[in-house]
Every structure is written in structure tokens, then in C-alpha cells.
Design a protein that fits this description.
Blueprint (H helix, E strand, L loop, with lengths): L2 H13 L4 E5 L5 E5 L21 H20 L1 E4 L4 E4 L15 E2 L4 E7 L2 E6 L4 E6 L6 E2 L4 E5 L1
Antiparallel strand pairs: 1-2, 3-10, 4-6, 4-9, 5-8, 6-7, 8-10
């Protein structure tokens, strides 16, 4: 048996599923091969557990934020868009805005225009009070129910 035959036999053994091979030829040559079965140990994955420890300062901050939001929403009456369209704060580009922050309004006063399908819809105030915030910009698209104004 020549070197190339032995090399081919070793390669074939390495690529096969056989773990052990012993061959004895009639001319007295014996070949014995065994694959090394030492497996590498892979350590198991360790799970990391997080324990929530309540932080008094964080809890107090959360409570304060919730209270502030609640108080802010209670202090204002919200005028929402009754339709989808484009918000205009004035009747024409060179006209004065209907209302601004600080303007006093009464129920029925025109606050803005929402253009929908080429129709100009005047949005009237549902409340008496003072404009605290204009929530949208002139020319901005608004959806149904989007806040337009906050009134104190």
C-alpha cells in the first residue's frame, strides 16, 4: 500500500461517521484507525436575574408627573377638531388671527377655520375662557379629535 492510498484512507475516515476502523491485508499489513472522541465542554448559559428595587425618589417623581398631568388636564378645556382637514388661524393670509394665546373667548366665538374638501368650516368655541395654548400651526393638517386649543 503506497502513501497516497493511506492518505486517502485517512481522509475518508475523517469524513465518515465511523469512529474506529481496523484493516488486515493478506500480505500481513495491519491498519488501525480511531477517531479522537474528546468533546469540548460548552458551559451552560447563565441567566441573569434582575431584581427591581423600588427607589423612593423615582416613585415620588412618577407620582408628581401623574399629578401634574392630571392637574393640567383638569385646568384646561380642550377644543378638538371635528373633522380631518387643514387648520387656518385666520380668514385670509393677510388677515389677523381669530384668536391668540391670552385672547378672551365666549361660547360661539370663531376660533379658527378647518378646510375640508375645499369647504371652509368655522370652528366655534364651546367654552367661555382664555386661550392658554394654540396646539397646531397655521396650515397644518389635523385629524378628527386632534386638540386645537386649550382654554382656561
Amino acid at each position: 500500500m503506497n502513501y497516497e492510498d493511506i492518505k486517502k484512507l485517512i481522509d475518508d475516515m475523517g469524513n465518515s461517521k465511523i469512529d474506529e476502523l481496523s484493516i488486515e491485508f493478506p500480505d500481513g499489513i495491519k491498519i488501525s484507525m480511531k477517531k479522537d472522541k474528546t468533546a469540548t465542554m460548552i458551559p451552560p448559559k447563565q441567566e441573569i436575574q434582575y431584581i427591581a428595587v423600588p427607589d423612593k425618589k423615582i416613585e415620588e417623581s412618577k407620582e408628581k408627573i401623574v399629578e401634574d398631568k392630571k392637574q393640567a388636564s383638569e385646568d384646561y378645556k380642550i377644543v378638538k377638531s371635528p373633522m380631518v382637514g387643514t387648520f387656518y388661524s385666520k380668514s385670509s393670509p393677510d388677515a389677523k388671527a381669530y384668536v391668540e394665546v391670552g385672547s378672551k373667548v365666549k361660547k360661539g366665538d370663531i376660533l379658527c377655520i378647518v378646510e375640508a374638501m375645499k369647504l371652509m368650516n368655522e370652528i366655534e368655541s364651546e367654552f367661555d375662557g382664555e386661550i392658554a395654548e394654540v396646539c397646531v400651526k397655521d396650515g397644518e393638517m389635523v385629524d378628527y379629535g386632534k386638540p386645537l386649543f386649550k382654554i382656561k
